[in-house]
């Protein structure tokens, strides 16, 4: 009788078939700040073990003079102040996997933090007293540390800057570009850099438009060594005054996600905010859920998988979601599926009462780690309730029980069913291998779980 090797790629958590035992989940929900702080935690390290941002010691984010640059240990919630003197403004926007190197701004100028000290970065000619920051860090094929940032001296005069191993790169030439019907802009800022330092995400904060269109609208574009891609031009079906108001680059530089203000081509189309996902490699723009659903794309991973938020206005009105096929699953529903995280714990940490079903206190999503197991968000006014959720498996691996998820099987006599932690097979096979969505082997037919 013919024997066949069966390869199953399941959207499930690790399961040991021979024992028919579901692996226990060990989720953890961590409060990143006390209720007396006004803090904003901007981003995670790639591995999710560290977060970076700023604390506002006065409790008032409008008093920029009282800004503490900080990093946080996401396992414990412990924060490390990178400047003890609260009268020295500083902030961090990028942190490495060890929590030993951060980049951002010191005295409102581009700088990085290493070995317990801030290191100011050299500025280009004409920008010695400009305001700016380091917004992203990458590492090229030679192992060089590439820092990218921006600085401006006036509302409409700015520049993008690159440093290699902490030294100003005077040979860096970036393309200042706008949509074909606009005039040249002089105010740009970096929004992302791929981890291999080859792909840049840039936006114009001030774009001087023809008088008949009025106002200052941004242009967002991707720059590589060879090409420039203006994302706004990819928004087909909308008026040319439509513009991207926010965008984020995946760590590998293959995806851009964000939102844009859309003006329809006809009065019947109306106007409002929509979300998009752009595939950089294949030059494909996808319009995601928009104003009808009230959804905004918040962050994207290296596989183009998106986390969403619903609602607008203040942070407490927002509601995070994970999209699976055609359904939006509330993030809180996902978290409470993992041991160690309950609705009561979430509400207690958010300093609120347990609410009715369908309500949510998690607020806005800021970042997700490379493996999808660590999520950063903020669920309260004045940025007081920053949180991190550690999951035992990737957020994208979540499926409800009794869901069948198998890859196609070449032999029509074979079938596989997953339900309630057990895989049921029919047909003759001599080998079984189960992989997660990242291609990692998690089980073989000898009963070994990885």
Q: Which terms would index this structure?
A:
four-stranded antiparallel beta sheet, globular, disordered N terminus, 3% helix, 35 strands
> How large, in whole angstroms, is the Cα Rg?
24 Å
Overall spatial form? globular
Characterize the biggest β-sheet. 4 strands, antiparallel
CA-CA gap between termini: 31 Å
The oligomeric status of these chains comes to: single chain
Helix/strand/pairing class, anyone? mainly beta
Order of strands in the sheet with the most strands? Answer: 4-31-30-29
Low-confidence stretches: 1-23, 59-65, 208-215, 312-316, 353-360, 399-412
| Average residue-wise pLDDT | 75
Relative strand content = 35-45%
Q: Estimate the helix proportion, in percent.
A: under 10%
Query: How many runs of DSSP E, i.e. beta strands?
Result: 35
Account of the 3D structure:
With about 450 residues, the chain is mostly beta strands. The protein is about 5% helix and about 45% strand. The relative contact order is 0.16.
Topology:
Elements: E1 4-9, E2 15-16, E3 21-22, E4 28-31, E5 38-44, E6 50-56, E7 67-73, E8 79-81, E9 90-95, E10 101-106, E11 109-114, E12 117-120, E13 131-139, E14 145-154, E15 157-164, E16 167-168, E17 187-193, E18 200-206, E19 220-223, E20 228-230, E21 243-249, E22 255-263, E23 271-279, E24 284-287, E25 295-300, E26 306-310, E27 319-324, E28 327-330, H1 331-335, H2 343-349, E29 364-368, E30 374-378, E31 386-390, E32 415-419, E33 422-426, E34 429-435, E35 441-444
Parallel strand pairs: 1-34
Antiparallel strand pairs: 2-3, 4-31, 5-6, 6-7, 7-8, 9-10, 10-11, 11-12, 13-14, 14-15, 15-16, 17-18, 18-19, 19-20, 21-22, 22-23, 23-24, 25-26, 26-27, 27-28, 29-30, 30-31, 32-33, 34-35
């Amino acid at each position: 009788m013919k024997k066949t090797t069966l390869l199953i790629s399941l959207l499930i958590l690790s399961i040991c078939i021979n024992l028919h035992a579901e692996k226990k989940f060990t989720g953890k929900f961590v409060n990143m700040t006390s209720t007396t702080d006004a803090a904003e935690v901007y981003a995670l390290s790639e591995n999710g073990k560290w977060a970076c941002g700023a604390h506002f010691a006065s409790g008032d984010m409008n008093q920029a003079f009282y800004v503490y640059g900080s990093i946080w240990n996401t396992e414990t919630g412990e924060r490390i102040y990178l400047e003890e003197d609260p009268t020295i403004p500083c902030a961090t926007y990028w942190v490495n996997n060890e929590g030993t190197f951060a980049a951002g701004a010191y005295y409102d100028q581009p700088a990085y933090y290493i070995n317990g000290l801030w290191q100011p970065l050299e500025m280009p000619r004409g920008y010695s007293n400009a305001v700016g920051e380091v917004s992203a860090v990458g590492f090229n094929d030679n192992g060089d540390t590439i820092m990218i940032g921006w600085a401006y001296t006036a509302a409409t005069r700015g520049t993008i800057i690159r440093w290699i191993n902490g030294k100003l790169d005077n040979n860096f030439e970036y393309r200042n570009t706008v949509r074909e019907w606009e005039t040249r802009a002089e105010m740009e800022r970096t929004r992302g850099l791929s981890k291999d330092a080859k792909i840049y995400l840039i936006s114009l904060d001030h774009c001087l438009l023809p008088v008949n269109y009025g106002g200052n609208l941004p242009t967002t574009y991707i720059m590589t060594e060879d090409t420039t891609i203006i994302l706004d031009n990819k928004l087909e079906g909308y008026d040319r005054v439509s513009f991207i108001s926010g965008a984020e680059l995946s760590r590998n530089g293959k995806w851009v996600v964000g939102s844009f203000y859309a003006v329809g081509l006809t009065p019947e189309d109306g106007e409002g905010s929509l979300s998009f996902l752009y595939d950089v490699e294949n030059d494909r723009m996808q319009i995601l859920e928009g104003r009808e659903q009230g959804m905004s794309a918040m962050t994207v991973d290296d596989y183009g998988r998106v986390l969403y938020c619903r609602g607008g206005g203040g942070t407490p009105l927002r509601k995070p979601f994970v999209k699976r096929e055609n359904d939006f699953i509330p993030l809180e529903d996902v978290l409470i599926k993992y041991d160690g995280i309950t609705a009561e714990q979430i509400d207690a940490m958010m300093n609120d009462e347990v609410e009715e079903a369908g309500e949510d206190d998690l607020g806005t999503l800021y970042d997700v780690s490379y493996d999808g197991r660590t999520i950063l968000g903020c669920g309260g006014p004045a940025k007081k309730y920053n949180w991190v959720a550690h999951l035992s498996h990737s957020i994208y691996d979540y499926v409800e029980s009794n869901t069948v998820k198998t890859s196609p099987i070449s032999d029509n006599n074979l079938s596989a069913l997953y339900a309630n932690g057990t895989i049921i097979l029919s047909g003759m096979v001599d080998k079984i291998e189960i992989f997660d969505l990242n291609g990692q082997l998690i089980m073989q037919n000898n009963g070994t779980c990885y």
